[in-house]
Amino acid sequence: MSFNLCLLFLVLHLPAAVHGVDRYTREDFPVDFVFGSGTSAYQYEGAAFKDGRTRSIWDTYAHSGHTNGAHGDVACDGYHKNKDDIQLMVAMGLEAFRFSISWSRLIPNGRGPINQKGLQYYNNFIDELISHGIQPHITLHHMDLPQALQDEYGGWLSRKIVKDFTAFADVCFRNFGDRVLYWTPVNEANVFAVGGYDQGIIPPGRCSARTSCSCGNSSIETYIVGHNILLAHSAVVRLYREKYKATQKGYLGFNIYTVWYEPYTNATEDVLATQRANDFIIGWLINPLIFGDYPEIVKKNAQTRIPTFTKHESEQIKGSIDFIGVNHYATAYVKDNSSLLEMDNREFSADMAAQITGAQSDTPPDMYPVLPSGLYGVLDYLKQVYGNQPIYVHENGQRMRRNGTLNDTPRVEYFHAYIGSTLDAVRNGSNIKGYFAWTFLDCLELLDGYESCLRLLLCRSG
Fold this sequence. Notes:
Number of domains: 1
Distance between the termini: 8 Å
Number of helices: 16
Helix content: 25-40%
CATH class: Alpha Beta
Shape: globular
Strand content: 15-25%
Radius of gyration: 21 Å
Largest sheet: 8 strands, parallel, barrel
Mean pLDDT: 90
Low-confidence stretches: 1-21, 457-462
């Protein structure tokens, strides 16, 4: 793919594009607030089997016919063209770039020797970003566990992952931490656990429904994976704070996917169901990091299917974040469905006992409705419930079908509205430190392959 035709827009310098949204500029945001964009290793790098990289669970999943038959073997070819891409970032005025490290490129077998070519690639990429004044933000795991560890012991289903993930993080901190201050161990931990082990719609594609998945147990695996992610996360944070914090002075956060939920009606049952949805989607993994344990409603509804923390584990997990990373795209309505609790062999979504309905608007069905109040709601909810932790909006963007045109007005309107909503939250006291548009380039999307795109730049081969 060449960069012969690129669409570039600078949202911050546009006049208001959505009725009711005030004009704003960069100067309206705090000086230390950063604007950036991002992507992930499998979606961006390509070179899937070059220079020592081995297969990840995302390779296996994509090559099994998912994601509309698409895969990341070439992707955006960032492995070869990242210097060109950084020039585009400079032209756009990006202040930060969020990307992930391919574990199977850096440590091909999941543990053991470091792949020197992979190490060189990431060192060069980081240096190139910094030399152009762009702040690197690194994610360690973006749904791309080395397939070798999945095959050996089931990956995130086993507590063995804690030791291996911590060793991987140690390699990254040791080699990149002198230049990188912002780290997120796991991207969208809730989506990875639910989508990969309850619904089977993302790697590694496990669920109970044999019409969709060849293996898996949705009743327990989602909770096991979420539990092990928290244990691994806290181990990584503990390692960093004990070994690297004093000299590197970096920060480690926890990233989740969020939806803003509104009650379908004003009925008490729907209001309570909305809070349950927040407890399951946000609180399930954030509560332990702030308070040391899962929400009471999650433990009550999941019963013995959710693992418990020992007192020591609870103490280690509590406080093991420096910021919360928020991925947000859409708003939904919640209706009570407590009858689901009568089911035998319930899975995560049934434990939530709620019916989720997407927000309705005149937006085309393949796009997200433009409801920036949803992002504001999420940011304010996190402030009120979790003590106003520092927050980075790690992902936000408009989904559109790929049609080969440059008519991106709906995307511009979406970004302008949601950045404006972020500014409203800042002005209302939310401790928000940055906003990252998803995604920097056209890339492989997890559910749609190359059929849809969320992008700042449209890049077509010449």
